Amino acid sequence: MLNTASNAPIEEKRTLERALGHQIRTLRRERDLSVADLGAAAGISPGMISKIENGQISPSLASINAVARALNVPITALFTAFEESRDCSYVRRGHGVLIERSGTKVGHVYELLGAGLRGQVVVEPYLITLREDAEPYTSFRHSGIEFIYMLTGEVVYRHSGQDYHLRPGDTLLFDSGALHGPAKLIQTPMTYLSIIAYPRP
């Protein structure tokens, strides 16, 4: 049963045993040791090492200490995966990083609302303002996907040759590898939230 409206899979709770086993396996492989090699060095049977790595048992403190010695790491190094940090980006209203476009994109003002999260996917949330002096520009193109939520004003937004008339409350989700951008500025100034997501290089 989902506990949110999202269709994203619920992250399985990481138990101490699973986190410990994952870290031991990672360190063992970094040292190019087999399960049997680590078991011999720690004085523990290969079967027991395998169960520890798979999070199937709660090893004794003596066993954990023996494994740490065999891997030549402090015992605390075996628990770093369990105590991993979760990133968060907080930006106060009006304190985002301002990026003001020039040239053919003059009048397009971007305010980056958050950054710096780790992970396999980069997410860039922008508050975009098109001022009275802004002009249409439909040649934006970049990797990933983009989500637009119209806040104020009115615009005809073009994506891959198709036009969409956006008013406050309208949304657009699209593949940002295709040419896109505001084709006709009907009511300015206008603002919209743009969230861009792409795989981390």
Give a verbal description of the structure.
- With about 200 residues, the protein is of the alpha+beta class.
- It folds into two domains: about 15-80, 434 Repressor (Amino-terminal Domain); about 95-200, Jelly Rolls.
- Helices cover about 20% and strands about 30% of the residues.
- It is built from four helices and seven strands.
- Strands 1, 2, 3, 4, 5, 6 and 7 form a seven-stranded antiparallel beta sheet that branches.
- β1 and β2 (about 110) form a beta hairpin.
- α2 crosses α3 (about 45-55) and α2 (about 35-40) packs across α4.
- The radius of gyration is 26 Å and the shape is elongated.
Attribute tags:
Jelly Rolls, 7-stranded antiparallel sheet, 2 domains, alpha+beta, 4 helices, about 200 residues, elongated, 434 Repressor (Amino-terminal Domain), single chain
Quick one: overall form? Answer: elongated
Helix content: 10-25%
Low-confidence stretches: none
Overall CATH architecture of the largest domain = Sandwich
